[in-house]
């Protein structure tokens, strides 16, 4: 029997604080890596300053520490995720959706490590191109598709495993501007074996071209096509809302969430993972603190890299008009609920835990004063 439960309050932030000096001693960090790790370790400490808030009802004063808002931070992503989900709900279509995942063979990992930006872009480009080619084939659909794509770079053990998750509505917009469902009224997308053949061929051919053009560092292995290129596609079941909740689970996920970090000692970190080969059994793995951070570093994306992309008729340029048209044709009731403000979303999703509510009486909090980094309120007064 494996014990899987949190036995200390170790989290990513405390692990960074504890092991960053040894990590720097062992290997150099790029300025960007150091910037991300520093931001995460400063999240909600006096280093980033804080704010004093007063309750409009009972007058009690509350202090909150500022968060880092870094997209790699497990503490900050929860809030962004909820805001993002609310926005996507405004864009739901009354159609079926598919979850498609594009992965690459192991032999390419070295190239990904040394050419992160180029290779991540290539992965996005070729997965989307594959969906487009199938969608625009008149025998399969004959319409322009749309998708939301998200890059993940990790596996359950924090290993390096770049892959793209895509949510694809089962259909597209044809030349006449009409919505057209994929086969069986959207109950079938495309054949995954054929998807993976087209994906691998196009990926490898562009990769070799980039190499010839001198845009790729390191050796490009031979016989890449023979390796397994796995494309997975599954219909996302449930209500339209649950499709969005489902997508939200992927869109703002970070390499490891704090609840999976079970224990930290002066030398080691233990975290839980799901063993897919054993029916998603929960197991634990222990690494030295430095090894843990080295694995974590692999998942810092290049600065300003767009990890979430809106494609085809769901691209930012097209989606407003496209969504309206499709809804009209499918006679779906328009979502009349007005967009919620940031604080309304937080109150809705986090309830009493929302920082905007008074802990004493539930009243609304008003900003009294913000403390810059140097003059932060003492940490022990803060939540
Ligand atoms: Zn109050
Ligand atoms: Zn943070
Ligand atoms: Zn993933």
UniProtKB/TrEMBL annotation:
It comes from the Bacteria. Residues 15-104 form the Transposase zinc-binding domain. Pfam families: Y2_Tnp (PF04986), Zn_Tnp_IS91 (PF14319). Residues 146-319 form the Transposase IS801/IS1294 domain. GO terms for biological process: DNA transposition. One of its GO terms (molecular function) is DNA binding. NCBIfam families: transpos_IS91. This is IS91 family transposase. The lineage of its organism: Bacteria, Pseudomonadati, Bacteroidota, Bacteroidia, Marinilabiliales.
